[in-house]
Specification:
There is one protein chain. By secondary structure, the chain is mainly alpha-helical. 54% of the residues lie in helices and 9% in strands. The protein has helices spanning 4-15, 21-29, 61-77, 82-98, 103-116, 123-132, 136-146; strands at residues 33-40, 49-55. It has a two-stranded antiparallel ribbon with strand order 1-2. A hairpin with an 8-residue loop joins β1 and β2. α1 (4-15) packs across α4 (82-98). It is globular, with a radius of gyration of 18 Å.
Length: 167
């Protein structure tokens, strides 16, 4: 699906590396989370885009939810600065090259092309250009469609308290 490419790039902007938006804000700046990330699946249809945080003891899940939503909303309301988009594209290039080092990884890329591009093995390499062509406007457009409040589902998982001091 055409929206998959900008969504994947959005996930890189939000969480690829310690300097990415979600990780930097929730882990470094506020200390709300032990870790945090966003993931965009690249499949036949847009499928699933999710963001998560493992909340630091002493902080409430609602704090993490609010910070995650604010970062998703920033993508909806503000164009991604060119420098940040260039960084995400460089990270994608790194992953693309490293993801083809072994025979197994090459086979995975060919399988991906065969399934998602209806048997076109050449699409395994052609997708690189589709990712590189993603613009800040593309990211904002798909963020407006997919990160809208009515499209959002929030799930909070809280561990059960330990019984009798056991873990």
């Amino acid at each position: 699906h055409p929206a998959s490419y900008p969504l994947h790039m959005a996930s890189k902007i939000l969480s690829d590396g310690q300097n990415a938006r979600i990780y930097r804000r929730l882990v470094y700046e506020t200390g709300i989370a032990l870790t945090a990330a966003a993931v965009g699946n690249l499949t036949e249809h847009p499928n699933l885009f999710y963001a998560f945080a493992v909340v630091q003891p002493g902080h409430a899940p609602a704090e993490a939810e609010e910070a995650l939503v604010q970062e998703l909303d920033r993508l909806r309301t503000e164009p991604v600065p060119e420098r940040e988009l260039a960084r995400a594209k460089k990270q994608f290039t790194r992953d693309y090259v490293l993801g083809r080092e072994s025979v197994q990884q090459k086979a995975g890329a060919l399988g991906h092309a065969a399934v998602l591009h209806k048997g076109d093995a050449g699409a395994a390499d052609a997708e690189f250009d589709l990712f590189q062509a993603v613009s800040a406007g593309d990211i904002q457009r798909v963020a407006q469609a997919y990160f809208a409040p009515q499209a959002r589902m929030v799930i909070t998982v809280v561990p059960r308290p330990a019984k009798d001091g056991a873990r």
